[in-house]
Amino acid sequence: MTLDRRLPLSGLPLSGLLLLLGLLLLGLPAVADQSACGPRDQIVARLAATYGETRQSIGLGNNNAVMELFASDETGSWTITVTGTDGVTCLVASGLAFEALHEPLPPTDSDA
């Protein structure tokens, strides 16, 4: 199985990626390009072996689709995947310069 990890989406701004991710989570089977999809275990193994990426975060979307963010602390590469209820995982976006942030919420204005 050949995976082309470098998707044309990697140049989109973060807001565009988030919008696209939301659309994919709403209708994964209809939107995802099947050439960037495969069994989850194979995709995860390939991300680890080829790019040194490990899972950094996970979330549940509409239709019980699982979104995962994989990244490498060493190289800064990152990949977003979505796995449908059928167990098929699709590469949604990838890029460079990953940095983990743990920012607190801004203070709330009590006058609002």
Q: Please, could you describe this protein's structure?
A:
The chain is of the alpha+beta class and 112 residues long. Helices cover 26% and strands 27% of the residues. Strands 1-5-4-3-2 form a five-stranded antiparallel beta sheet. Mean pLDDT is 80; it is low at 25-32.
Which residues form runs of ≥5 with pLDDT under 50?
25-32
Order of helices and strands: HHEHEEEE
Q: Quickly give the structural class.
A: alpha+beta
Q: With helices defined by DSSP (H or I, 4 residues minimum), what is the helix count?
A: 3
- The total strand number stands at 5
Q: Give the fraction of residues assigned to helices.
A: 25-40%
Topology (SSEs and partners):
Blueprint: H1 14-26, H2 28-31, E1 37-39, H3 40-51, E2 54-60, E3 66-71, E4 78-83, E5 88-95
Antiparallel strand pairs: 1-5, 2-3, 3-4, 4-5
Summarize the structure.
The chain is an alpha+beta fold and 112 residues long. It has three helices and five strands.
